[in-house]
Automatic annotation (TrEMBL):
<keyword id="KW-0723">Serine/threonine-protein kinase</keyword>
<dbReference type="GO" id="GO:0005794">
    <property type="term" value="C:Golgi apparatus"/>
</dbReference>
<dbReference type="GO" id="GO:0004674">
    <property type="term" value="F:protein serine/threonine kinase activity"/>
</dbReference>
<dbReference type="InterPro" id="IPR011009">
    <property type="entry name" value="Kinase-like_dom_sf"/>
</dbReference>
<keyword id="KW-0418">Kinase</keyword>
<keyword id="KW-0808">Transferase</keyword>
<keyword id="KW-0067">ATP-binding</keyword>
<dbReference type="InterPro" id="IPR052239">
    <property type="entry name" value="Ser/Thr-specific_kinases"/>
</dbReference>
<protein>
    <recommendedName>
        <fullName>non-specific serine/threonine protein kinase</fullName>
        <ecNumber>2.7.11.1</ecNumber>
    </recommendedName>
</protein>
<dbReference type="GO" id="GO:0005524">
    <property type="term" value="F:ATP binding"/>
</dbReference>
<keyword id="KW-0547">Nucleotide-binding</keyword>
Length: 89
């Protein structure tokens, strides 16, 4: 899913890697996204973490759409967490 890809781009691991490493069920973990850990969230814009969480919602009727994600991320992409401007995507 897009949420898993975004998580992997930010943290360089799958949101379920820690579960797998502990020997627990990835299938069960995928059904409980509230248990996903978000390390170092302070280094990312809070809206980006919100989008990531919204894209990892199990219920597709409650999950953020690609259009909604693009709108939010488009507004986030112009500044780094330290406030410096960067090229918008």
């Amino acid at each position: 899913s897009l949420g898993c890809c975004l998580y992997a781009l930010c943290y360089f691991v799958s949101p379920f890697d820690l579960v797998y490493e502990k020997g627990n069920s990835v299938a069960l973990a995928a059904q409980s996204p509230e248990k996903i850990q978000y390390p170092d969230v302070k280094r990312f814009d809070p809206q980006l973490v919100t989008v990531m969480r919204a894209l990892l919602v199990v219920d597709p009727t409650r999950r953020m759409s690609i259009e909604e994600a693009a709108d939010v991320v488009g507004s986030v992409g112009t500044k780094r967490a330290d406030g410096q401007n960067v090229m918008a995507v």
